[in-house]
Amino acid sequence: MTHVYRIGEVAARTGCSPESIRHYEKLGLLPPPQRGEQGYRHYDQAALERISFIRHGRNLGLDLHSIQELLALSDHPDTDCSSADDIASRHLAHLEARIAKLQALADELRQVVHQCRGGQSRRLPNHPNAV
């Protein structure tokens, strides 16, 4: 017999709020759950794994559309995986741009730290985005 989980237990196990789980259902990221006698949603282990995948993807910065595409590929493993390559390529480009911006910020912070050493502030570097 497979174990079934109610939404609160799924939320606790996956770190995903019940509201988000319901939202993912509405978007079609999750199949409609089975319902118990009193109308409570019942999820199986596969649903927990799918929700965990969604949450992990969101934590990595993937948008829900990309996650939906990846789930569709997972649901149909015989399909062409070029869309997965496209998703990965787009995400990689986004991450590389973000890394470059973070590196520039780190360089600026190094200048501030260097100029503020010794307890006295010296003239800090001008920044085009300064207020």
Automatic annotation (TrEMBL):
Gene3D superfamilies, A to Z: 1.10.1660.10
Domain HTH merR-type: start-end pairs: 4-73
The entry's keywords: DNA-binding, Transcription, Transcription regulation
Entries under InterPro entries matching the protein: DNA-bd_dom_put_sf, MerR-type_HTH_dom, MerR_fam, Tscrpt_reg_MerR_DNA-bd
Coiled coil spans: none
GO molecular function, one term: DNA-binding transcription factor activity
Protein name: HTH merR-type domain-containing protein
Organism of provenance: Vreelandella aquamarina
